[in-house]
Amino acid sequence: MQLPAMITRLPEADLPFPSSALKTSVLQSHNGQLVFFQIHKDIEIPPHSHKGQWGIVLEGELEMTIGGKTRKYRPGDTYYIPEGVVHSAKVPAGCKAIDFFEEPDRYKVR
Amino acid sequence: MQLPAMITRLPEADLPFPSSALKTSVLQSHNGQLVFFQIHKDIEIPPHSHKGQWGIVLEGELEMTIGGKTRKYRPGDTYYIPEGVVHSAKVPAGCKAIDFFEEPDRYKVR
Known about the structure:
Chain A is mainly beta. Chain A has 1 helix and 9 strands. A 5-stranded antiparallel β-sheet of chain A has the order 1-2-9-4-7, with no helix packed on it. A 4-stranded antiparallel β-sheet of chain A has the order 3-8-5-6, with no helix packed on it. Chain A is globular, with a radius of gyration of 13 Å. Chain A starts with a helix and ends in a 9-residue tail after the last strand. The mean pLDDT of chain A is 97. At the A-B interface, strand 1 and strand 4 of A face strand 1 and strand 4 of B.
């Protein structure tokens, strides 16, 4: 599943991963940030927390631990991480997902 | 699948359907409009066209005709409607979907 240019030309999020590992496309709003993630190399996101986050897997899979519970998420699966709940993830190459972050400044945009 | 308040509290799109038929939640950006749709009554969207649109079904199903080709879309299925391509849809009650519109003013926001 190819994301169209109308999405991939959106600005990128400033993340602590090399650009060879993932591509991000950020839809910036006053009401939050929505990020299209395309993962090219396996990545691990260590435990952290912030305001609310909701997401859906588009392609591939990811493993997430939310508030101590670990499960795999596959295309069409959605997840919700309430404010302050610690979460971490293992995301293999090939995963595509959308995440909506309640914070409009969750990421700096390049 | 329940969409969290961080999404359902976003502003609504001004659409020609009664509010009993559907609920929309719009993430407004300079780079487009992303709309979460929750359909409460069967609706039909007549053939029309505009700039690019990309979407994914979250729950339930919908039938769409894009450029003369009709198919059903189910949770996790994505679709892309290039600029100018005529499309129409039959969306039964219970469907939830996300659509991203290239035009930042595709809908008036209430």
